[in-house]
Design a protein that fits this description.
Length: about 260
């Protein structure tokens, strides 16, 4: 459970909010820790994950979107990984600016040694700890701490691509498929207000604003107090209200924000 949570945070806090959207800045130590946590999730290296997600935002709900939700629930959940990429994805992928990550030594180190790092941090360490410290059998530990955890983390994060683009309201932008999903907020520890995230992708709280499960954003704020995170970007309440009034579906409820650190 704990390792699974670390894996999810490696995606939501690390690959997503830090490296894709630069919603905040971190120290080299925290960057290294988040890189290891993202490796544990087994969802490709940071470089590939960020490229696909930036493409998802830039070409949202079109053939240039790797997880194009307009192609159906199953496709956006996992089908996009089971078939050849649409020609538009290959073409538009060349337009994604990755210069920032190319200049990041931690990201490029992981990219160059991803499979070795994956074996160490996603397979061997999680499986070996229960064996050596609690006398668990290798077979049971491998099944629970690798296979079961890996499948659970995959489907949990995939729900953001599928459920959070299918079932819910659209208080900030009624013209896109991304929605607000309480279910996704529950299983991902907060990342369910996806309509908000697509409207304001640079907000470090996104997509948690308005939920009671603001775990990741509170962690970021705590790390900022410790001096390990800084420059937390957020959207003002006035901008949120104006966007909801202009393009929302009328379901917006007041969502207060705290001044970022």
């Amino acid at each position: 459970m704990f390792i699974g949570w670390l894996s999810i945070e490696g995606i939501t806090m690390g690959a997503h909010r830090l490296w894709t959207h630069h919603s905040f800045q971190v120290t080299p130590l925290l960057s290294t820790v988040l890189m290891i946590m993202q490796t544990m999730a087994g969802q490709n290296c940071i470089w590939i994950w960020v490229r696909d997600h930036r493409q998802h935002h830039r070409y949202e709900d079109t053939d240039g979107d790797p997880r194009n939700a307009s192609r159906g629930f199953f496709f956006s959940h996992m089908g996009w990984l089971m078939c050849r990429k649409h020609p538009s994805i290959i073409k538009t992928g060349k337009n994604i600016n990755m210069e920032d990550l190319n200049a990041d030594p931690i990201v490029m180190f992981q990219k160059n040694y991803y499979y070795l790092l994956y074996f160490i941090f996603a397979v061997y360490v999680p499986v070996a700890i229960p064996v050596y410290f609690w006398n668990e059998s290798w077979n049971v530990s491998l099944f629970v701490n690798y296979f079961f955890r890996y499948v659970n983390v995959l489907h949990t994060t995939w729900c953001v691509n599928s459920v959070a683009h299918s079932f819910g309201n659209k208080p900030f932008d009624k013209n896109i498929l991304a929605v607000e999903s309480r279910f996704v907020s529950l299983v991902t520890f907060g990342d369910g207000t996806h309509n908000f995230h697509h409207a304001f992708p640079w907000d470090y709280r996104s997509p948690e604003l308005g939920t009671s499960l603001q775990i990741t954003s509170k962690l970021i704020e705590g790390l900022a107090r410790l001096g390990m995170a800084s420059n937390l970007k957020y959207v003002s309440d006035d901008m949120i209200k104006a966007r909801a009034k202009r393009t929302g579906d009328g379901t917006y409820k007041t969502q207060t924000s705290e001044k970022a650190l």
